[in-house]
Specification:
about 160 residues, elongated
């Protein structure tokens, strides 16, 4: 590697490559450049209108978000059921229900774990989450169509963006 006679450039395999000019120190003692204003910088503002949403993208986004909510619901139900089971809530409630439903003819009462067991609760949660995915996707897509119709009548949603300074 050899250096050329121009400072700040280098030559590599016969090709001259440009480098950045040296950076000047803008320390505390230096005066501000004349091109920069001394006072407060005014923030830029942009006024935009959301005139139309694409129903296909609304459907895709709402489907993905409803799938995420379904996963969250199943995990939350599992966690709540596990906490209640570890605290012994189902055992104490089960004993109370069994003692109330036991009769002289029947030696055993109703076992609530047949109704609120983990498999049954998670199955019901999964079914309800699936129904929620379908309904939420359909309703959000319908809302996208309705927004487009309303925006064509009133002009859309006016939004003003400002830049942080």
């Amino acid at each position: 590697m050899s250096t050329s006679n121009v400072p700040g450039t280098e030559q590599w395999r016969g090709q001259q490559t440009a480098t950045m000019p040296p950076v000047r120190d803008a320390g505390a003692g230096s005066a501000p450049a004349p091109s920069q204003p001394v006072g407060r910088v005014k923030a830029r503002r942009a006024r935009l209108v959301l005139a139309r949403v694409d129903p296909w993208s609304v459907m895709k986004l709402s489907f993905l978000l409803s799938i995420a909510l379904a996963i969250v619901a199943v995990v939350a139900v599992f966690v709540v059921w596990s906490v209640l089971d570890s605290m012994g809530v189902f055992d104490s409630v089960g004993r109370s229900v069994e003692s109330v439903t036991r009769s002289n003819d029947n030696a055993t009462g109703v076992d609530i774990m047949d109704y609120v067991g983990l498999n049954r609760v998670l199955s019901l949660t999964a079914v309800l989450a699936g129904v929620n995915v379908v309904l939420m996707t359909a309703l959000c897509t319908l809302a996208g169509f309705l927004y487009n119709m309303a925006a064509s009548l009133v002009g859309g949603l006016h939004v003003t963006f400002t830049e942080d300074v």
